[in-house]
Amino acid sequence: MTDFQEKLILTLLDKGILAIIALLLGYLVSKKLEIFKGNQERIRSLEKDKIALKNEFDKL
Questions:
Q1: For residues 17 and 12, what is the distance between their CA atoms, to the nearest angstrom?
Q2: Is the pLDDT reported for residue 50 higher than 90?
Q3: Where are the beta strands (DSSP E) in the chain?
Q4: I need a labelling partner for 4 at 20 to 30 A (CA). Which of 11, 22, 29, 53 fits?
Q5: Residue 1 above 90 pLDDT?
Q6: Angle (nearest 5°) at CA 35 between 29 and 39
Q7: Which helix H or strand E contains 43, and what residues bound it?
Q8: Angle at 14 between CA 8 and CA 17, to 5 degrees
Q9: What is the largest CA-CA distance in the chain?
Q10: How far apart are CA 9 and CA 1, in angstroms?
């Protein structure tokens, strides 16, 4: 195997590993963002319920 071939294989392996790491990080960030958005939606829903109950209580 020539020096060029060895360097080419090493470069391709390095790029492949970096691509896999980038994909994993993107996936993890996406999952965390979805969890955050879900939590924010739950908080928003609870705030709406709280306001509705407060308005209902004030009517009594």
A1: 9
A2: yes
A3: none
A4: 22
A5: no
A6: 140
A7: helix 3-59
A8: 140
A9: 88
A10: 11
Predicted confidence band of residue 36 (pLDDT cuts 50, 70, 90): very high
Q: State the pLDDT at residue 25.
A: 98
Alpha-carbon distance of 15 to 5, in angstroms, equals 15
Tokens 């790491």 locate to: 21
What is the rounded average pLDDT for all residues in the chain? 96
Checking phi first, is residue 22 left (phi over 0); if not, alpha (psi -120 to 50) or beta?
Answer: alpha
A 10 A CB-CB count for 41 gives 10
Report the distance separating Cα 60 and Cα 57, nearest Å.
5
For the record, the structure tokens of 47 come out as 């705030």
Q: How remote is the C-alpha of 50 from its chain's centroid?
A: 29
For 25, the token pair is 């990080």
In the chain, the amino acid numbered 14 is D
